[in-house]
Amino acid sequence: QVQLVESGGGLVQAGGSLRLSCAASGSIFATNDMGWYRQAPGKQRELVAFITRDGVINYVDAVKSRFAISRDNAKNTMYLQMSSLKPEDTAVYYCRAITMNYWGIGTLVTVSS
Predict the structure, then answer these.
(1) In angstroms, rounded to a whole number, what is the distance separating the alpha carbons of residues 100 and 113?
(2) N or C: which end of the chain has fewer CB within 10 A?
(3) What is the rounded radius of gyration, in angstroms, for the C-alpha atoms of the chain?
(4) Distance in angstroms (rounded) separating the CA atoms of residues 84 and 12
(5) Residue 88 has what DSSP assignment?
(6) How far apart are CA 66 and CA 105, in angstroms?
(7) What is the pLDDT of residues 70-102, one digit of tens each?
(8) DSSP letters along 9-71, please?
(9) 8 Å CB contact between 53 and 32
(10) Contact 49, 36 (CB under 8 A)
(11) Backbone angles phi, psi at 89, to 5 degrees
């Protein structure tokens, strides 16, 4: 059974940093491009960043130069380092195994002004 478990969310002041982790079960990392998504209150879920199996990375414009995505295939874990956080980054952040379309249950990030 495939599981994706996010962790690292919490409450942080504007300008602060957080690191999210996504731990995956099984061999999912070896066969999947991976991504971080977020859903703010009252808004649709959106892609934040993705990283392919080959390490190709892309970010949505709103987080470029502030967020950094990475993956450790040996540990079956993906990360999202978030810096210079803004109140508009407040959302539930989800991990997704893109190729096989598996989702985690999300972790809440709240940025106070």
Answers:
(1) 37
(2) N
(3) 13
(4) 10
(5) G
(6) 24
(7) 999 889 999 999 999 999 999 999 999 999 999
(8) -EEEETT--EEEEEEE-TTHHHH--EEEEEE-TTS--EEEEEE-TT--EEE-GGGTTTEEEEE
(9) yes
(10) yes
(11) -85, -5
